[in-house]
Every structure is written in structure tokens, then in C-alpha cells.
Amino acid sequence: MPLSDEALMEQFQAGDEQAFDILVERYEKPLFNFIYQFVRDYHLAEDLYQETFLRLYRAADRYDPSQKFSTWLYKIATNLCINAIKKRERELLYLEAERVSTLEEVNVMKGGETEVLSDPAGSTEQREMYRALQKALEALSADHRLVIVMRHYQGLSYKEISEILGCSLGTVKSRLHYALDQLQSTLRREG
What is the pLDDT of residue 40? Predict the structure, then answer.
């Protein structure tokens, strides 16, 4: 019978490096998928995945075996994802300001005419729906996007989400309800 995550973590705390390797192997796919669904960038997800386990490794002595291991692991990943999203949003705001400034300069040089480029390859209805959903998800705040990803992509329970985020069950349900309403409204507006 395989050891529980908590027992493996205790073994790792006692110096058993193989226990850590088993935990990494167990959580490789679900944790990477969680991070990817949240940040929507493969390379960033890889970096955050590795950083999550690096932080877990460094903080192993602070793990309390009476707590559920997966909650602790996902809390580390969640904090890293939120910080990465906030950093990316700041960078995007800066780049957008630069782009608008450049477009205004180009527009003035062309005499005020703008050119709209179309996608020559076209797209299927399904691809368009997927893009619309991803765009709507990205428009949500980090807190609201996070509960959607945790609940609908990772299948976590309300209780698990509550523990990972450190908030009440009511807050989780409220954020999820609001996020789903926002997604629905955005998708209706987009057609």
C-alpha cells in the first residue's frame, strides 16, 4: 500500500530524498495543469511548477504533518501564480502604453489611416469559442480566475479551495458565483 503524502513528507523531513521524488512524481501532472490553467503560458507554468517544488524543498521543515499535504502544496503554487499574474499584468500595462504611443506616432505618419489585419487561416467555431472563453477568463481578477481554475479545471472541493486560499467557504462560493456570472456576461456580449 503506497504511503500517504503526509507520511512521505515526514520521511523527507527526516532526510529521505526519495520520499521527495515520489511526491514530485505524484503531483507532476495535476500541479502543472493547475498552474497552466491559471497562467495560460506554458513556459511560465514550467517555471512556476519548478519554483513550487523548490520552495517546498526549502520549507520542508515548516510543514506540519497534521495538515493535508496537497493543501500546503497548492497554497505555495497559488501564491506564486498570483504574484506572476500581477507581475505580468503590470508588464502588459506598460507594453500596452508603449504600443498605443507607437501606434499614435505611426498613425500620424500615415496621415491618420489605420489598417486592420485579418487571420488568413480562418478559425473554426470551436476554436473561436475556446478563445472567447480564455479571453473571458483572463479578464477576470486573479482571485476570481483562481476559484474557476481550482473548481472546474482541477476539481477541488469548496473546502479544499477554502483551505488553500485561507478564506471562508462562503467567500469561495461567492467568488465562484461572481466569476461564473462575469464569464457568462462576457461571453453573451461577445456572442
Answer: 84
